[in-house]
Amino acid sequence: MRAAYLTGHGGNEVVSVGERPTPTRAAGEVLVRMKAATVNRVDLYMRDSGAGITHNLPQVLGVDGAGVIEEADDTSRIGQRVTLYPGVVCGKCEFCQRGEPVLCAKMSILGEHRDGTMAEFVCLPADNALPIPDDLGFAEAAALGVNYLTAWRMLFTKARLQAGETALVCGVGGGVSFAALQLAKAAGARVLVTSRSAEKLARAKTFGADAGIDAAPERVPAAVMELTNGRGVDVVIENIGGAMWSAALKSLVRGGRVVTCGATIGDNPPADLKRVFIRQLQMFGSTLGNPAELAALIGWCAQGRIRPPIDARYPLDQVPAAFARLESGEQFGKLAIEI
Ligand SMILES: [Zn+2]
Fold this sequence. Notes:
By secondary structure, the protein is an alpha/beta fold. The protein is 29% helix and 26% strand. The protein contains 10 helices and 18 strands. Helix 3 (138-158) crosses helix 4, helix 3 crosses helix 9 (291-302) and helix 6 runs parallel beside helix 7. The N and C termini lie close together (11 Å). The structure holds zinc ion (ZN). Zinc ion binds at residues 89-90, 92-93, 95-96, 104, 106.
């Protein structure tokens, strides 16, 4: 089969597109003929070092993806359009048993610990392939598996965002942050967004952002207070870290919730404990999500409540060009690989 795969670690020269062995389906698995994947930051991390992620080279790239079931134990599923939950879990540990497979210590993620989705075929447990509505495109469906799933868990499972509340989404140019904007708006929240790009703020407004803040992290809290009549926001969705984490804490209303899923500019900002206990702030860490959350997200797509925008589409042999665009930071929406 054709696939985009890593032969080493470094720049785009370690990304090859060519033949890899077609995976063989085991009992309990489905063989999916892939139609689309999308590019995520972690693909660049895998390309550049993959440090701390156990994997063997050569390895097929791509974490999220969508396609059509080609082989399955349950023959009624053959031909079904599906999107993939990217984590393969043990199913036996205490976390898997209590319905939190995302906490499974043995989780093996497509494109990180095992061959990924930028390939003509993927084999994985049948429960990892979730049916999608007929009117949802493969690229859009692929986009749900990482960015949208991560944002869903942050907003609804962790922060329990309610309609009528106000959320601050930091760095709206990022994939998870943009997904959080769309989902929070669809949930009926008021959403403030930050970005250092006037163009990205303008685009965010076309997707429903109520206000944009173009300011250094240190100046974000003042802008938030101005936009909320001095109250602060109920929820902050944060993945930048460093000075933005401090800004997030200062932007919250008393009892407010902040959820982090990343630390791009620093993972050890001041704890600001006095502020945390006096104002009774709640902090959550989050990463990815569970299959049940992905199913709920697909349900929202079926109801037409959200649809991920695709910035650009590339054929499989142009994966390096898609990576270059992600690195440029110019995209708005997902970069899709069509297979
Ligand atoms: Zn487990």
